[in-house]
Amino acid sequence: MAVDYARRARDYDAARSDDVTDRSYWLRGLIDVGRILPGERVLDLGAGTGRFAALLHPDHRIVAFDSSPEMLGVARAKAPIPCVRGDGHRLPFQNQAFDATILVMVLHHLMDYPTALREVSRVSRRVVVATTDMATRRLGILEEAFPSLLEIDRARFPSIQAIVAALMEAGFGEVRVEERPYVRALTAEQQLDRVRRKYLSTFDLLPPGEYDLGLRFLEREIPRRSGDRFELKASFTFVAGLR
């Protein structure tokens, strides 16, 4: 089941974006693992609201690409970057139009991610994918609140091994995998607000009633267990390839 981002666009950044974290964690990982250099042509595939396209914009020739016109509408307001709407399985760009393509938490939204990666290989010399390894993924108190969440995500997210295999089949060599720890401190109310705004797209895919029950559980248990401090601890995996 696909997640409808049309109604999420307005609140998406409030639930997901944090400038310090976006710069110090996500952007740093993309640039380091993807070996992205200043001045290069970069395609942000599945750019959404343009969080990373806007950060790359000052030093790179960036194009934001997404299937949602509502999300791209938000992206256009952030920076003077080209925004292109289309299907990630059929990219409307010439061969080798880009030096690098970034895909941040995107593959699980694609109907056929190996086909999309073959298209990336056609239009780009390098690629870097940011994803989560569901084989080791843990969500702490969220697992108690939403018992179906991990099971749903394990069916949605391709494994790291499958991503590596798809990149190699698409023609990328020198595939590198780097797992990076992620820690973020929030207040209890900030985390609860993120859940209320459904910062995880999987919340829309939970069985009927589970989200509401889980939210009430968190509203009671997060302040009781954590006081006013809620710490997120996780890790995300960056996978890069070179043609």
Description:
By secondary structure, the protein is of the alpha/beta class. It has ten helices and seven strands. The protein has a domain at 9-138 and 157-183 and 236-242: Vaccinia Virus protein VP39 (Rossmann fold), CATH 3.40.50.150. 40% of the residues lie in helices and 24% in strands. A seven-stranded mixed β-sheet has the order 3-2-1-4-5-7-6. Helix 5 (113-123) packs across helix 8 (160-169) and helix 9 (188-196) runs antiparallel to helix 10 (210-226). The protein starts with 8 loop residues before the first helix and ends with a strand.
Describe what is shown at a glance.
With 243 residues, this protein is an alpha/beta fold.
Features:
alpha/beta, Rossmann fold, 24% strand
Give the SSE layout.
Layout: H1 9-16, H2 19-34, E1 41-45, H3 51-56, E2 61-66, H4 69-76, E3 83-85, E4 98-104, H5 113-123, E5 124-131, H6 141-145, H7 149-156, H8 160-169, E6 173-187, H9 188-196, H10 210-226, E7 229-242
Parallel strand pairs: 1-2, 1-4, 2-3, 4-5
Antiparallel strand pairs: 5-7, 6-7
Helix vs. strand class: alpha/beta
Instruction: Write down the overall mean pLDDT.
Output: 95
The shape is globular
CATH class of the domain at 9-138 and 157-183 and 236-242: Alpha Beta
